[in-house]
Amino acid sequence: MHDKFPEYRGQLQYFCLGCGKKFPADELYYTCPECKGVFLLEDTKFDQLKQIPGHKWQEIFDERARTKKNALRGIFRYYELIAPVVEEQDIVYLGEGNTPIIESSPALTKIIGQPLAYKNDGQNPSASFKDRGMACAFSYLKSLIRKYNWEHVLTICASTGDTSAAAALYAAYAGDKIKSVVLLPQGKVTAQQLAQPLGSGALVLEIPGVFDDCMKVVEYLADNFRVALLNSKNAWRILGQESYPFEIAQWYDWDLRGKVIFMPIGNAGNITALMSGFLKLKKLNIISELPRIVGVQSSHADPVFKYYAEEKEKRQFVPVKVSPSVAQAAMIGNPVSFPRVKALVSEYERIGGPGVFNVVQVEEQEIIEGMLLANRHGHIACTQGGECLAGLIRAKEAGLMEKDELAILDATAHSLKFIGFQQMYFEDSFPPDYEIKPKKEFINAPRLVLSEDEKKDLPGQEFTLEAGKRIVEMLGLSKKEI
Q1: Are 127 and 385 in contact (CB under 8 A)?
Q2: Would the CA dihedral through 167, 173, 176, 177 be positive or negative?
Q3: Are 157 and 133 in contact, with CB atoms under 8 Å apart?
Q4: Looking at the predicted structure, is the pLDDT value of residue 1 above 80?
Q5: SS3 22
Q6: Are the C-beta atoms of residues 222 and 156 closer than 8 Å to each other?
Q7: Do 315 and 307 contact (CB within 8 A), yes or no?
Q8: Sign of the CA dihedral 310, 313, 317, 320?
Q9: Mind listing the pLDDT tens digit for each residue in 350-360?
Q10: 3.40.50.170, 3.40.50.1100, 3.40.50.150, 2.60.120.280: which CATH number matches 101-125+240-441?
Q11: Cα–Cα distance measured from residue 190 to residue 417, given in angstroms and rounded to the nearest whole number
Q12: Residue 272 and residue 348: Cα distance in Å, rounded?
């Protein structure tokens, strides 16, 4: 049963959040041809899924968790809720999804004073959550190539690192009909992240500026030329990322009472998917209660925080000029998906009640030290994961957390992608714009036991004995009793 591919086929269409117009989903659309608004994808047959009781859906998804069928092992375990128009032969699976939720160590829980856990999305194939959206976008792209017999498709994205890594990886796997081009802000992508698209064979282009500048260029190209845009403006990306909330719900046996999800906002695609996914589960009675959501932004890139900090009747979205941030993926002053956030927050609060959605602001010092603190207690959080821990601390200070609520923090990528920022902290080499001054208790560096010159004067066993002696002194070791 769990290896059988689903029979249900939906009917997806683009729905413009600007003017409300709808367009068929069998073409590449990124913004509305009428008003340039952003899209959500909706299944016009979704109500048919309500004929199956919520507890039955739970059984179906739990049963599929045992499958060995590649098409259902990743994000498409939740096929009917993600992109139920893609055929099995078109599904691209590289091991994405099903990332673990790791409870905090007792020591970290005590320090923070709150039950918490990390969802390690850095354990996706390209080491970030972006793979969820790419698996969906490339599966859809493959279906279009087969349907229209296209000879080739050029994919393009703007990136601060993770999007380009995921796009290049999936393009490399998907076949020779798909070519990948990525546009990066020069000098603002870590060496580790730059290595990924280069290693996957993508054409990497750089321009001066920040992510927002790159995004404007790829938007121009997508609007005027035949290219497949792979940023989160692509609504298929959002659908794939909805697997994240589905997995959280399933891990907790579909009971989300007392759970608070912390999510860095960045370009706002992930927090869009978080709300959209939980709303689908609630409408199908798969979950009985919506979890609370807290978005987190750095003070160096905080337009969404500023919007929701205002009283409802005074709110007006204003893009901000960003300053350098260690949370590079969140360093976006004009999030593409903000219209999606605005629309979904309204629905989320209508169903979940007041206080179900909040945004907090944190400082750069708190972000980098949040990452260091988490990783010193056994996690593999990136700087965005550090941003979430800092956000939890700030939420507690603001009285937004109940004592026994479980905070589930998003580690969007693997810590190794941001190892350069850790080193800058240890060496106290951050430029002034970062506003980070290292604290002694967080600094760590290797200690030399013997120099190369000393080793030359200690042949064979003498070197071993001298090195051992010095380590004994450093560690204060006691000799074994016979």
Answers
A1: no
A2: negative
A3: no
A4: no
A5: strand
A6: yes
A7: yes
A8: negative
A9: 999 999 999 99
A10: 3.40.50.1100
A11: 7
A12: 11
pLDDT at 437 over 90: yes
Start and end residues for every CATH 3.40.50.1100 domain found in the chain: 101-125+240-441
pLDDT tens per residue, range 60-77? 999 999 999 999 999 999
Outline where DSSP puts E strands in 53-115: 101-103
Tokens coding 47:
């109500």
3-state class of 480 per DSSP?
coil
Question: For residue 156, what are the β-bridge partners?
Answer: 181, 229
What b/e string do you get for 155-185 counting C-beta neighbours within 10 Å, with b at 16 or more? bbbbbbbbbbbbbbbbbbebeeebbbbbbbb
Please answer whether residues 322 and 215 qualify as being in contact, where contact means their C-beta atoms are separated by less than 8 angstroms.
no
Task: Please give the Cα distance from 400 to 387 (Å, whole number).
Answer: 17
Q: Angle formed by the axes of helices 269-283 and 338-352, to 10°?
A: 30
User: 12 by DSSP, 3-state: which?
Assistant: strand
Number of H helices, E strands in the chain: 19, 13
What is the pLDDT at residue 68?
A: 94
What residue type is 350 in one-letter code? R
* Whole-prediction pTM: 0.95
Taking all residues of the chain, what is their mean pLDDT, rounded to a whole number? 95
